[in-house]
């Protein structure tokens, strides 16, 4: 239930509640997922580096341009397919996750 509340808060975040940066994706922009993804690819050269489910209500995705190091965080409502850019910025740093201990399944 807490994930549902978190996802609903994120999907309801207005554009003016997120700091906007010059020449970067504008947080709060929403539309059909395919259109938003195409805009990230064509305008910013960003590709998917992470995708995860937020319970059964939403899909969270991170897009990154590894050269310019711009990034965008997008959520998509599972029921409607509507996607919104919730945050975007520059630069991004990649951190290697720790290796699992032997004998522990992820």
Brief summary:
With 106 residues, the protein is an alpha+beta fold. 21% of the residues lie in helices and 31% in strands.
Task: Report strand %.
Answer: 25-35%
C-alpha termini separation: 23 Å
Order of neighbouring strands in the sheet with most strands:
1-5-4-3-2
* Chain-averaged pLDDT: 78
* Radius of gyration based on Cα positions: 15 Å
Largest sheet geometry: 5 strands, antiparallel
SSE run: HEHEEEE
| Helix-strand category | alpha+beta
Q: In DSSP terms, counting alpha (H) and pi (I) runs of 4 or more, how many helices?
A: 2
Q: Would you count the extended β strands for me?
A: 5
Shape: flat
Helix content: 10-25%
- In terms of per-residue confidence, which ranges show pLDDT below 50 for 5 or more consecutive residues? 1-25
Textual characterization of the structure:
With 106 residues, this protein is an alpha+beta fold. It has a domain at 29-93. The chain contains two helices and five strands. It has helices spanning 2-11, 33-44, and strands at residues 30-32, 47-54, 58-64, 71-77, 82-89. A five-stranded antiparallel sheet has the order 1-5-4-3-2, sandwiched between helices. The longest helix has 12 residues, at 33-44. The chain starts with a helix and ends in a 17-residue tail after the last strand.
Give descriptors for this structure.
21% helix, 106 residues, 2 helices, disordered N terminus, alpha+beta
């Amino acid at each position: 239930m807490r994930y549902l509340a978190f996802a609903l808060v994120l999907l309801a975040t207005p554009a003016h509640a997120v700091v906007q940066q010059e020449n970067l994706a504008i947080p709060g922009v929403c539309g059909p997922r395919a259109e938003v993804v195409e805009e990230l690819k064509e305008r910013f050269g960003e590709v998917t580096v992470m995708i995860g489910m937020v319970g059964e209500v939403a899909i969270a995705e991170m897009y990154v341009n590894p050269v310019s190091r711009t990034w965008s965080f997008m959520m998509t409502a599972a029921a409607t397919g509507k996607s919104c850019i919730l945050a975007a910025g520059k630069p991004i740093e990649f951190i290697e996750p720790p290796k699992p201990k032997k004998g522990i399944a992820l």
